[in-house]
Amino acid sequence: MFNKILIANRGEIACRVAATCKRLGIASVAVYSDADANAKHVAACDEAVHIGGSTAAESYLRIERIIEAARATGAQAVHPGYGFLSENEDFAHACEAAGIVFIGPPVEAIAAMGSKAAAKALMHAAAVPLVPGYHGDDQDPQLLQREADAIGYPVLLKASAGGGGKGMRVVERSADFAAALLSCKREAASSFGNDRVLIEKYLMRPRHVEVQVFADRHGGAVYLFDRDCSVQRRHQKVLEEAPAPGLDADVKRAMGEAAVAAARAVNYVGAGTVEFIMTPTGEFYFMEMNTRLQVEHPVTEMVTGQDLVEWQLRVAADEPLPLTQQQLKLDGHAIEARIYAEHPARGFLPSTGTLKHLRMPEGVEFAIDAAGLGEPGRKAPVRIDSGVREGDTITPFYDPMIAKLIVHGATREEALARLARALHACEVVGPHTNVEFLQRIVASEPFASGDLDTGLIERHHDALFAPGKKPFREALALACAALLTREGGTAHGASPWDALSHWRLNSGYTQTLGWRMIDDAAHDDGAAAFTVVFARNGGGQTSSQTPAQTLEHDGVREAFTWSAGAGAHEFRATIGDARVSGRVFVDGDRFHVFCHGEALAFEWQNLLAHAADAEGGEGRLTAPMPGKVIAVLVEPGAVVEKGTPLLVMEAMKMEHTIGAPTAGTVTEVLYAVGDQVTDGAQLLVLDVQ
Ligand code: MV4
């Protein structure tokens, strides 16, 4: 076994690999970019080497620099994680050339699976089931048309060099084929530099079922059962589980054996995943093979009790596989939910910023017990794999995943209940997250009943995005409690003298608190503004008919009491006959309330300050996230309507259009095309008429 390895990755997967190294007594070397100087993965490793600037191209994709770091630190092997260089043949080759072990498959196996058409030819020879179709070298358009006609419509055109759903066209009728072929080839050429296509019968309502395989250098190859990853959004996995629910034992065995045959056909070594597409009736067909450890590997770890990173290290060190096929056993059910910093109500736009508050449910990190060594705690019912801590920043440079929440149960039902509960215990203040979206999928009928296919999210879009029922009154009571506590008893001043001012002998005291609801499901700016009147009666007037304190909202007055709870940010309140306890995180004037498993946010409107503000009447237009200006659509002097697009930013590979919040005249444009802007930077000045 190695005594030191370098981890050529970042985030949760780098932390995950470091945890196994620590447990096995292997020293670990981190590499990091400028943006990651204080990242969790750097702290998780024994040593760290700075490899360059913040973009991936300047750091995590620099083959030479990473090899140099491995040499300089005396690392014997490199773990590539997933993404970045994990499936890069040149990198695997460069490691080999430098005498460093690449913890992954041989270069030839990566190459064999790189082309869909070539992989299908190999799989056909190995008797692995393929979707009926054509994957030949001859790309003559008339031949392709004849092949498509013979397969029968609808057919799916796929770029041979593509992946992840890019470069695909569904063709419904023979008459549409020629045009679709041209368009598919054009996209394939520009996206992958290769316009070769293949044709498949288009399958309706497919499931994505994949098999975890492992092979060693001594002729051993096994499958560690299956996972269902059908719940996806634009080819991004959202929920994954093991085993795939509802499959007959003989289908599972046949699929596992087909996956091992696929691995053997390319002389595979190490961890791999064979993806199948499955019809509602249980037929399965080879799709592609991922030649790396996958994001969703923890669900397999939980149901097998095995540490897959340990398996990878042992195989890379030339040891035989730790277990035979007969020794591998399935235990219970595991589900993983990926928690992302993104904004579901804005088309899942990535959401950057500092994690001002981050609370995950009670669980075990990276399958390692509390002491951080010894027995893997894989059977712990809740596991959290995360590459960030409270106070860290989600930047536009990398994948905005905050954590993977993985639960285990004796049955799927038990795992599902545990997942629902765990999601309700997640608290994030700072970036927007998909936590509520995940809660809704997990609670949905098709997911709960295991009726999975790749169209689940789209088909249930309306229910998944409908306005939610939230404990508004209780959360508002907690927000008022936090505000009144912060202001020492009054919302208008914090001085101790002010704090006493409410106490008036024999007379009532009232305060009007202005609030604005910040609703994640709607846009921040469309939120409702309202007031709450807080009243505290004078000492002499208290009786059972007149409560000592009341809150009045929307014409309803209710008894109100509050107290600070045991921990910081904890409050208890009663409002009418409801009792509530929860946490309130105050970020400037924003009050983030977590109670009854839900997150609600209110913005305090300083009514006095707002009255003064209203005179100014100037439209502010700020960058919603750090990024680059890619188009300026107006010039100073332009008269615009409410909603007129003014400027386009690019952040995290997505475009974001800044529109006019109100009608007005643009008086200044503060940035030019190509400029980098920081989060919250004012972009233009709009004079409101
Ligand atoms: C298909 C298909 C239907 N029929 N192939 C999408 C990504 C790539 N890995 C394969 N994909 C598909 N191939 C045939 N013949 C439907 C999909 C597909 C899909 C597959 C897996 C997971 C999610 C998906 C979402 C849309 C389409």
UniProtKB/TrEMBL annotation:
The UniProt entry, under InterPro entries, shows: ATP-grasp, ATP_grasp_subdomain_1, BC-like_N, Biotin_BS, Biotin_carboxylase_complex, Biotin_carboxylation_dom, Biotin_COase_C, Biotin_lipoyl
Gene3D superfamilies recorded = 2.40.50.100, 3.30.700.40, 3.40.50.20, ATP-grasp fold, A domain, ATP-grasp fold, B domain
Q: Is this entry keyworded NADP? A: no
Every copy of the ATP-grasp domain together lies at: 120-317
Q: The Lipoyl-binding domain covers which part of the protein?
A: 612-687
Print the keywords alphabetically. ATP-binding, Biotin, Ligase, Nucleotide-binding, Transit peptide
> What cofactor does this one take?
biotin
Instruction: Give the protein's recorded name.
Output: Acetyl/propionyl/methylcrotonyl-CoA carboxylase subunit alpha
